[in-house]
Design a protein that fits this description.
single chain, globular
Amino acid sequence: MNGWWGKVLYVNLTSKQVKEITLDPSVYLEYLGGRGLAIRLLWDLNPIGVDPFSPYNHLVIANGPLSSLPAPSSGKIQVATKSPLTLGYGDGNLGSMASFHLKRSGYDAIVVTGASRKPVYLYIENEKVEFRDAEDLWGLDTFTAEDKLIREHGRNVGILLIGPAGENLVRYATIISQKGRSGGRPGVGAVMGSKKLKAIVVKGSKEPPIANKEEFRKIAEEAYEKIMKSDNYDFWIRQGTMATIVWSQQNSVLPTRNFREGVWEEYESISGDLMEKIKIARRGCPFCNMQCGNVILDDSSEESELDYENVAMLGSNILLSDLRRVGEINKLADKMGVDTISLGNSLGFYMEASERKLVEEKLEWGDYREIKRLVIDISYRRGLGAFLAEGVMRMARSLGKEAQEFAVHVKGLEVSAYDCHTAPAMALAYGTSPIGAHHKDAWVIAYEVRTDRFGYTREKVERVVFLQDMRGGMFESLTTCRLPWVEVGLDLEYYPKLLTAATGVTWTLDDIRVVANRIYSLIRAYWIREHGDWSREMDYAPIRWFKHPLTKGPYTGMKLDFEKYNKMLDMYYEMRGWDERGIPRKETLQKLKLDYVIPVLEKIVELK
């Protein structure tokens, strides 16, 4: 097959057995790869209702048909599993040389099941797979462990690994690569830890199958050139996503004080303008010519790679107003292998609970010394850290009704760095994100701010669905980075052209949107299967945005309208072909070639 290898490597850590699974070509044509391949594999392989920490929960590491081919920002890899944070489908992507080497190993994905009795790591070199002892790596932070693996295997490898947070089953532990690349917010790293799998080291040397290499090269070269000639390219290279701090402040969406406000008086202390003055380097993923990783020297004079999400969540959201100190917390999180977005939420939630005297152990806003200590304690589940390691949803449930009103999450996944008191479409994007509250599927807030800011319109819902289809359906499954399109305006048409040249099958954006809708409906079916029931309440944005109006900034007194939000949700369901509960209709499942889902769901809910 051109564009794909047609094979998946299946690894059982319990029996230490390995086999190749050959997939039918229709699976690739219907799901592309990356996220699409991951959800199809999890649907087929995971037992219904499996505990996320059970050996029978599968971990999927997947490439797509464009992953790590010589095309713009293609060095991405997808990691997916049943989430210990949400108990639904969970995934993430990260830029890593692991994508490059998996692409050249002869496999489209690695699927891991079972659990080892002792810590191990996988060494994969083309068809050769070895189970290596990881006793000397277990307990090490990700930076130290990666250095040891590089000394053992050389630099020409791809490495995915976990830190102490994954080992100790922190529910928002991630997978780390290359000292700062992090993916799998819904606890994918914790699932890896439950299997006693410290790392995956991949080395591949095969030539990826491309249908029309010369045509692919021409399209990719033109796209690279377009990126560098774009109007925003120079500014992007200087600040990357860090420019969003000022933008969010100006538009009153900067998460502040556990999403209580959208503005912060001290925003300049963590801004992209300040970062630009102290930046010492840039980092990026393979095949990227618009690297977004801005590196500064943190409070301990070590390198920390910053972007908007980690700075906002560990800065304004917890009132930490020193960028070098924010960098220090961010670096510690990467070393420990803990998600910075959920970390900032969990800290902010507990700080508010402390302020309201709902907890005995105090934690003041912006207390740098305590925050720094807690990152380590969370990762080892020590003392208060063990409570924070459970995430916002579980902490709020244990503290009662009052706490649940300021618990900022959707389906158990903490909200990323945009306050939505005055952004109904972005609130809908969070509510309907297929992994819980995350911006990667539909960053609609920029569109919303420059058009009808406060409207609850059909046009906005259409935009959310379109963005989900492109960002969460196409980019997450190809698997490539969305930023060339989002940030410097690379025409979307380049992607079906590249896909056509790679596979030899003619693709259009409309074809890809059909695949995207199939993926979203299958992920929704998976959630329903795992939770055993469903209601539209699962798609509601956090209560805070409906009940607690802003008290600062240009939109003081404003909040979301619950009835109007519900009408937007009705429109969303209609566009997806789902019923008023958010459950895919039988006709929709049949139309999307998801007939195999129907008998499973009919045992759980009434399909309309």
